[in-house]
Amino acid sequence: MRLLYLLLTALLLAAGSMPAKADGLVTFKKMTLELATKLAQSTLAACRAQGYQVAIAVLDSAGGVQVILRDRFAGPHTPETARRKAWTSINFRANTIDMLEFTGPGQQQSGIRHIHDALFVGGGLPVLAGGALVGGIGVSGAPGGDLDHACALKGIEAITADLEF
User: Fold this and answer.
1) Which 8-state DSSP code applies to residue 144?
2) How many CB atoms lie within 10 A of CB 128?
3) What letter would DSSP give residue 41?
4) How far apart are CA 58 and CA 156, in angstroms?
5) Which has the closest alpha carbon to 155: 43, 55, 77, 68?
6) Is 3.90.550.10 the CATH classification of the domain at 24-163?
7) Which residue, 144, 147, 161, is CA-closest to 49?
8) Are 57 and 86 in contact (CB under 8 A)?
């Protein structure tokens, strides 16, 4: 009986270490908190180097907040603005600065500007790893969306080696 128990236990342990076939399920990658924090801090450093006081939001690929940083003199509205920029970049899988033209007044896609939480102002970028969306970053507080965008690009450049797999 004891031998049977040991054999069953060994089989169960071995089965637990085998990859299960799961039809209908998908897998995805997500930034660790450490990598999301590194992205936020690198972006903050890039903005500070230009003399900008900003807020940075790093979201996971589902739009959940992972990190929010707000520099001491960044406006009180900047954390929420940064979060919305990141959320928009994730949901539309595009840089928010690139979306300005085709979502503007009179454009066929202008209606998407009315989607709750969407914010089409420069400074939101998706974060990709191996072509897969792993999150998004939003920056708010520099004196223009193009400058927010440039800071976010610098932050992503700082973690590019960590994103490659």
Assistant:
1) S
2) 15
3) H
4) 11
5) 43
6) no
7) 147
8) yes
Binned at pLDDT 50, 70 and 90, residue 19 comes out as: low
> 3-state SS of the chain: helix, strand, coil percent to 5?
50, 15, 35
Residue carrying structure tokens 């928010």 = 96
Q: Rounded to whole angstroms, how far apart are CA atoms 45 and 43? A: 5
- Give the C-alpha separation, 17 to 15, whole Å: 5
Q: Is the pLDDT of residue 20 over 70?
A: no
pLDDT in tens, 107-155: 888 889 889 999 999 999 999 999 999 999 999 999 999 999 999 999 9
pTM equals 0.84
- Name 149's Cβ contacts closer than 8 Å, sequence gap at least 6: 95, 96, 97, 122, 123, 125, 139
Domains of the chain, by residue range, sit at 24-163
Q: How many CB atoms lie within 10 A of CB 71?
A: 15
- How far is the C-alpha of 149 from the C-alpha of 151, rounded, in Å? 5
The residue to which tokens 């637990």 are assigned: 16
Q: What is the DSSP string of 88-120?
A: HHHHHTS-HHHHTGGGSTTSTTGGGGGSTT---
Identify the bridge partners of residue 132 per DSSP, sorted by sequence position. 129
